[in-house]
Structures are given as structure tokens and as C-alpha cells.
Amino acid sequence: MEVTRSSLWFLVALAAVLQPARPQTSKPNIVFILADDLGWNDLSFHGSDEIPTPNIDALAFNGVVLNNLYTQPVCTPSRVALMTGKYPIKLGMQGPPTYGAEPNGLPLSEKLLPEYLRELGYTTRAIGKWHLGFYKQAYTPTRRGFDSHFGYYTGYISYYDYILQDVYQNFGEFHGFDMRRNDTIAWDVAGKYATDVFTDEAVRLIKEQPADRPLFMYLAHVAVHTGNRGKNLEAPQSEINKFNHILDPNRRTYAAMVSKLDESVGRVVEALTEKKMLQNTIIVFMSDNGSPSFDSSGRGFGPNVGVTANWGSNFPYRGIKNTLWEGGVKSASFIWAPQFQENPRVSKQLMHITDWLPTLYSAAGGNAGFLPKNLDGYDQWTSLTLNLPSLRNFVLLNIDEKQRYAGILKDNWKLIVGSTANGSLDGFFGATRPRTPYNATAVLYSPAGRALARLSNSLPFATGGTAGPMSGVRDLLAMRYESTVRCNPSPEGPRARSPCPAGEACLFDLVADPCETNNVAKKYVTVSGQLYEALKYYRRLLVPQTNRPFDPAANPARFNNTWSTWMY
């Protein structure tokens, strides 16, 4: 029977009413792990045979793999969408990432996700990257709903010295340390590996969390973003040595960075288990956008394309970070919760990063119907838990009025107008070859896998040991097969040009053509017209970009060589 959108809304509303009310003390803990610039093809649950990620895979294969979740194309806009539940075009935040010396930030008029959750009784913790403004103290995390913040304000840091080097055309290089415990500079972390440092903090906070309060932890890693010039990619040598099967030294170091990220996930799950919190926790894992990848020669990109290569891979998707191709805006992601262990699956439900605010608010026991009506996110909690169709059939990918490109989705149709960096990023980057056989047993016996196995025996819905973790390697491999995207990208690889004639729109059927190789705009003129009209509607809602001139007063040399608030 076909389910219409009106009947779907009725089913979701009915399901929400029929679900038993949760007691006040049963609000779930929420751990949101946000990777930075992680590629679709850099996680082994998506079919990669180069970089094993057993802890991430264990959660993904015992939860819901979100194979149709979209983000914004770059860092700051994705975080804006996550924290506000709104498309960045409505806030003037749809352009490039915010720079360290830029007096800009997420408008103070906006109420953020941690503020909503704190009203529901949550302890709110932020760890890692902020990148939503700090030029005035009012823009910093502990003034925007977080009870604490251990991390950095700017867009990236190097992994051992916690320094950001920014070069400004009129002012030269600004060079400063950027790591804090709330408002206090954390000099003591220098020399320690950032992924480990952020994980240590997450484990500490979990151990100290009061049993009578739910926890919202936002763990926004620097991994696997590049660092500064001369130290773009960093990982412990002992970890790098595990990947000698990868010949390219940059890709090898990148693999070690991903492996440390996977280790972090395992340690967080172990800490939740030891604290007896895992059985009442929701874990979301996702990347903020696609990887900047690398070019056909294994080198980085030129200086004028707006990205710095990190040697990740979005293959087989077209495009990279800072583009609206699938490789730039489709996120490697999943959600895990105890109730998903009984029936794990690969989801094709259409979602956008704006959906997390109403979805997690609803999962936390809040009534999403009381949220502001101008949010762009949808409450997908009931759709996820009952495996109903997504409430969303449109996704605005972005409208950049300065760069003159835009993109929008409706169901399986995707319309793109314009391009980034004069089309130099339109190809297929980061192709990899199988390197090692997939070790499904390592997934089952990873720290996360063992924790989930122990948990399954204590869940009230466990039936004869069949609930919970995947019953065996065969089921795990079947789910991995379903999670893997298969298509035929252009043999021209990075040199492949856009299938859109100059100045014309591209239309793709993502079910038939997930790698965006066949422009069907002229074949489906009506669909193209509908999506173009939708773009025009959103264009009328656009607030012009608020990127402001860089301010020399932000120079860290004025603040003991630290990146600090400089306006009051």
C-alpha cells in the first residue's frame, strides 16, 4: 500500500501518542560524535578495505546506518545547521568557514541545541572544535548552552602543539595557541595527541556524570582535518606503522588518524559501559562534510580551490568538501541506541543535519511540537525508531550567492546549479584499491563490540540471545554489503568534468545514478522546473553572507600568543 505524506504524518503522530511515556529519570544520555572532514570511503562499514574501523563498525552494524544523511559542504555552516536546526542561508552563514581573525559568529538571536536540552534537565558538555565565533565572549560555548567546554575556538589546530596559523593578505601570518578549559588556556596539553586528549576528557566526564542527571556530550574531534603547513597530517608513529600496506605516506598517516578516531569511539563506549550508562544512551556518529581528499597524482590541490587535501576518500562519489556533489555533502554516519540493536539496518531515509535538533529533543522526552515553527529540521525520532518513511522529501543543500552555486534535493532527484573553483573539484578523487581482507571477527571483538555483546544480555527485549549484536559474521557482512555504494564513476577520475554544460543546471536521479554521471535535466524538464522553483523560493529567504573584514586586533601576539576574545 502506498503511504502518502499526509497519511505518514498521521502514522508518526499516532505512533508518538501510543508510545509509553518515559519516566522522568529515564531520559537517555546523548553522545554526539562529530568527525571533521572524514571521507565516505574511510570507514570499513562502508566497504573500505584500507582502513579498519572495528569500533565504529560495531556500533553501525548494531544501529541504523544512515546512508542518506546530508550536511553542508564546509565546517562552520554544518555546525550552524546542527546547533540551530536551520539552513545557514537564513542566518547569513552559508559561505566559507569563519576565520580566526574574523569578527563573526553564529547570531546570538539563535537558541542552540544544548540550550534546549539543558531546559530538559541535561548536563551539557562540549569537547573539541567550536568554530561558531569567539570574537566576543557571548559567542563562546559556555555562553551558548554548554556547562563546560574543553577544546578550541577556531577551525583547526595541529595535533600536538594546538597552534593555528592563519595567513591574511593585508596582515601576514597570525600564529597562536588555541586550547582551553572553559575560559582558561590549557597549556598542559601541548605535546599530547589531540584525539587522545579529547577522548581522555570525554571518559573523565562520563565517569564523573551524576547518576540522576542525563548527559548530552558533544564530542567534536579535530580528526581528521589537516593541521598547519609542514605538519598537515599527524599521528603517533606506532599507529602509522600499522598501515604499511598503504604505499602513499600521506594516505598512510591519514589512515592512522582515522584509526585513532576509531579507538576513541571504542574508549567512549567502554566508559559508558563501566558507568552503567550505555543501556540508556543514544550515540550519533557523523562527519561534518566530505573529505578534501587528494588529486590524481597523490598531491594536494592548488592554492586557489578553497580546500587543503587531507588524503581522505569519498570514492566512489563525485566531488569533495566545498562542493555540492555527493562526495562533499553526504555524511558517513549512523545512530545507535539500545532499541536499535534488536533490528539493526541500513537506512535510506532522507535526512539533513538540521534534523538532529528536533530529533534529539524528541528523543530526550521533549515535545518537538513546541519548538519554533521556523526550524528547517524535522523530528525524525519516530521514523527512525519505527522504521517509517522519512518526514522529509526536500533538502536544501546550499545557496551561495557570492560563488553563484546552489543545490537542492527532492526524494531521489538532485538539482545543481553552478560549480566550485571553476569546476576543478568536479571529478572523482581518492580512488583506493582493496588492501586487506575485511576482518568481521575484529568488529565483534573490538572494545565497542564486546560492550554491545555484554549489553545485549541485559536488555529487556533480548530473546534467547538473538537480540543485540549481530548474531554472526554472515549477518554483519550482509549489512556491510548493503551499506556499500556501487556505481561506475568516470574513468577520467579527478580530471572528469561536470556533466552540466556551462551555465546550465544539472539534474540527477540518485537512485539510478548515485555517482552523478548522467545529467537528465532535459529528459525530465518538469522535475527540473519544480526543483528550480524551490530554489527560487529559498533564495527569497536568503540573508546575505555576513563574512566580515579580518581584524588585526585579533592577532594572538596581543594575547600571549593565544587565540582569544578580542572585542567586548
Can you put this structure into words, describing what you see?
This protein has 568 residues and is α/β, with parallel strands linked by helices. The protein contains 14 helices and 18 strands. The strands form four sheets. Strands 9-8-5-4-10-1-11-12-2-13 form a ten-stranded mixed β-sheet, with helices on both faces. A four-stranded antiparallel β-sheet has the order 15-16-17-18, with helices on one face. A two-stranded parallel sheet has the order 3-14. Strand 15 and strand 16 form a beta hairpin. Helix 2 packs parallel to helix 12, helix 5 packs parallel to helix 7 and helix 7 packs parallel to helix 12. The longest helix is centred in the middle third of the chain and has 26 residues.
Feature tags:
568 residues; alpha/beta; 10-stranded mixed β-sheet; 4-stranded antiparallel β-sheet
* Cα-atom radius of gyration: 22 Å
Largest sheet data: 10 strands, mixed
N-C termini distance = 60 Å
The backbone outline, from C-alpha atoms, is globular
The total count of helices amounts to: 14
Which percent bin holds the helix content? 25-40%
How do the strands of the widest beta sheet line up side by side? 9-8-5-4-10-1-11-12-2-13
Q: How would you classify the helix and strand content by structural class?
A: alpha/beta
Strand content: 5-15%
Can you count the beta strands? 18
Question: Topology, pairings included?
Answer:
Elements: H1 5-18, E1 29-35, H2 54-60, E2 64-66, E3 69-70, H3 75-84, H4 113-119, E4 123-129, E5 148-152, E6 163-168, E7 172-177, E8 180-181, E9 184-185, H5 194-208, E10 215-220, H6 237-240, H7 249-274, E11 281-287, H8 326-329, E12 334-336, E13 345-347, E14 351-352, H9 356-363, H10 381-386, E15 394-400, E16 405-410, E17 413-417, H11 440-444, H12 447-456, H13 473-483, E18 506-509, H14 525-541
Parallel strand pairs: 1-10, 1-11, 2-13, 3-14, 4-5, 4-10
Antiparallel strand pairs: 2-12, 5-8, 6-7, 8-9, 11-12, 15-16, 16-17, 17-18
Helix pairs in contact: 2-12, 5-7, 7-12
